[in-house]
Specification:
With 426 residues, the chain is α/β, with parallel strands linked by helices. The protein is 48% helix and 9% strand. Strands 4-5-7-9-10-11 form a 6-stranded parallel sheet. A 3-stranded parallel sheet has the order 1-2-3, with no helix packed on it. The chain is globular and about 65 Å long. Bound molecules: beta-L-rhamnopyranose and manganese (II) ion (2 copies). One manganese (II) ion is lined by residues 177, 217, 252, 279, 325. One manganese (II) ion binds next to loops.
Length: 426
C-alpha cells in the first residue's frame, strides 16, 4: 500500500487552522525567549530514525505471539510498510535489516523500491543468537565467544556475509549484538570467552570496507541469565578499541540494569568519540522493547540533552546510527512505531530548547536550583506544534496517528495481504 501526498494533505486540512494558532503562539513565545525557532524546526525535519526490519510484525514473547493481521510477509512488503510510516511522519527514512531474516532476493528491485519511497539502508544487523536451518554448527553455547573454533568461524563468516549484503544496498555499518554468555556459574571461563570474542571481532573488522563502521552492542542479561560476554558499555568499548578506529559502542536503551544513568554513558562515550549507534525503546524492568517514551519520558529527555550536547560539541564523535528497537504483542506495529517516532522527536525538540549558555553559567555558579529550572523549563514546554510544523514542511501528516486511522491503513493491508501472513523476526 502506498500513501499519496494528496491523501496526506487532505488529512491535514481539518486541523490546519488550529495547528497554525498553536504554532504561532508557541513560536512567538520561544522567539521572545531567544530561540531560533525555524532552526529548531529544520533540525526536527532532518532527523531520521531507522526502522528495524523485524519490528513490522506483531512482536512475540516466549509465551506466544498474537498476529495483528496484514503483516508483511516479504522484505518488499516491509519496505512498503516503512514507506507508509515515512509518508506520514517524514522521520522514518531508513531501514535497518536483520540478516538472515531479511535477505533480499532481488537487490536492484529492493533498492529501487526503497529509493522511490525515500528510504535508505542504515546499519545491517547480524544474527548469531539463533541457529539457522542447515547450519553445520550450533550457537547453543555461544557464537563469537564459543570454545569451538568451528563455531566461531561460522559466526565470523556470517558477519562477513552480512557486510557483503549491506554493501550491495548502500549500508555503511554492521551492528553486532551477541547473546553469548552463560546461564550458570562455572559454565564459562570469563577471560576465554572475552578473548575469543575479541579475536572474532577483529577477524570481522578486517573484512569491513574502508568507509564502514562496526557497532558493538551490549546487554547485561537475557537470554543468558548469569553472565553476558558483552555485558556493559565498558566491555563494548574495550572490544571496540581492541578492533580499531572504525569500531564503536552502540547503546540500546533497554540494555541496562534498572536505574542506570544512561545519559552519563552516552555523554562520556561521545567525549571519547566512541558512540556509534543508538537503539530506542522503553522499559519498566529489562529489555522490554516498549514504545519509546511510554514509561520514562523524562529519562529520554535527559539522554537527548546529552546527545544534543554531543552533536554540537563533540566533532570527534561521528554521526550516530539511530534505530527504533521496539516491538510487542498488543499494538498495531505501525501505530506503535508512529508513537515511538513522535516520542523521539518530542524529546529531541525539548532538548533543543535547553538554553545551553544559561545552563553553563548556572553550573559555574553552582546554582543547582537554576540548573534544574532550565532543564525542566524546556521539558515542560509542549513542543508538539514544532513537530507538526516540521512534518508539514516536509509533506507529512499533522497527526500521523489520526491520518493512519483515517486512511484505514491496517484494513487495507489486511485486504491486500490477508489475515494469516507472518513477518520474519522474533
Ligand atoms: C536484541 C538487541 C538487538 C536486536 C535484537 C532483535 O536484544 O536489542 O539490537 O536486533 O534484540
Ligand atoms: Mn538493540
Ligand atoms: Mn534488545
Amino acid at each position: 500500500m502506498n500513501i499519496q501526498k494528496e491523501q496526506v494533505l487532505e488529512s491535514n486540512k481539518k486541523s490546519l487552522k488550529s495547528h497554525e494558532e498553536h504554532y504561532d503562539f508557541l513560536a512567538d513565545k520561544l522567539a521572545k525567549d531567544g530561540h531560533d525557532v525555524s532552526g529548531i524546526v529544520s533540525k526536527l525535519a532532518e532527523f531520521q530514525v531507522a526502522i528495524p526490519s523485524w519490528a513490522l510484525g506483531a512482536g512475540g514473547t516466549r509465551f506466544g505471539r498474537f498476529s495483528f493481521y496484514g503483516e508483511p510477509s516479504s522484505l518488499e512488503q516491509k519496505i512498503e510498510d516503512i514507506g507508509v510510516l515515512h509518508s506520514l511522519t517524514q522521520t522514518a527514512g531508513a531501514v535497518s535489516l536483520h540478516i538472515p531474516w531479511d535477505i533480499p532476493s532481488d537487490y536492484n528491485a529492493i533498492k529501487e523500491k526503497a529509493d522511490a519511497l525515500g528510504i535508505k539502508f542504515d546499519a545491517v544487523n547480524s544474527n548469531t543468537f539463533q541457529d539457522q536451518k542447515d547450519a553445520s554448527e550450533s550457537y547453543k553455547y555461544g557464537s563469537l565467544s564459543n570454545t569451538s573454533q568451528a563455531v566461531r568461524e561460522q559466526a565470523i563468516q556470517h558477519n562477513l556475509d552480512v557486510i557483503k549484503i549491506g554493501d550491495k544496498l548502500g549500508s555503511k555499518a554492521l551492528t553486532v549484538w551477541l547473546a553469548d554468555g552463560s546461564c550458570f556459574p562455572g559454565q564459562n571461563n570469563f577471560q576465554t570467552a572475552f578473548q575469543n570474542t575479541q579475536n572474532s571481532l577483529i577477524d570481522i573488522y578486517k573484512g569491513l570496507p574502508e568507509d564502514w563502521k562496526m557497532l558493538v552492542e551490549y546487554k547485561p542479561y537475557e537470554p543468558n541469565f548469569y553472565s553476558t560476554v558483552i555485558q556493559d558499555w565498558g566491555a563494548s568499548l574495550m572490544l571496540a578499541n581492541g578492533c580499531g578506529d572504525k569500531a564503536y559502542t552502540l547503546v540500546d536503551l533497554g540494555h541496562h540494569l534498572p536505574n542506570s544513568n544512561i545519559e552519563q554513558i552516552v555523554s562520556i562515550l561521545q567525549l571519547k568519540g566512541k558512540l556509534g549507534g543508538f537503539h530506542f525503546n522503553d522499559s519498566k524492568y529489562g529489555d522490554d522493547d516498549l514504545t519509546v517514551g511510554s514509561i520514562k519520558p523524562y529519562a529520554l529527555f535527559l539522554i537527548f540533552n546529552e546527545l544534543v550536547y554531543g552533536m554540537e560539541n563533540n566533532p570527534q564523535n561521528p554521526d550516530l546510527a539511530w534505530m527504533i528497537d521496539a516491538s510487542h504483542n498488543v499494538k498495531d506495529p505501525l501505530e506503535d512505531l508512529i508513537q515511538s517516532l513522535e516520542a523521539i522527536q518530542e524529546a529531541y525538540a525539548k532538548a533543543l530548547l535547553i538554553d545551553q549558555k544559561a545552563l553553563k553559567a548556572a553550573q559555574l555558579d553552582n546554582d543547582v536550583v537554576k540548573c534544574q529550572e532550565i532543564l525542566q523549563g524546556a521539558y515542560r514546554t509542549d513542543v508538539r506544534p514544532l513537530l507538526e510544523k516540521a512534518r508539514l514542511s516536509t509533506g507529512g501528516a499533522l497527526s500521523p496517528i489520526n491520518a493512519y486511522r483515517a486512511l484505514d491503513v491496517r484494513n487495507s493491508l489486511i485486504t491486500e495481504r490477508g489475515k494469516n501472513t507472518v513477518a520474519t523476526g522474533l
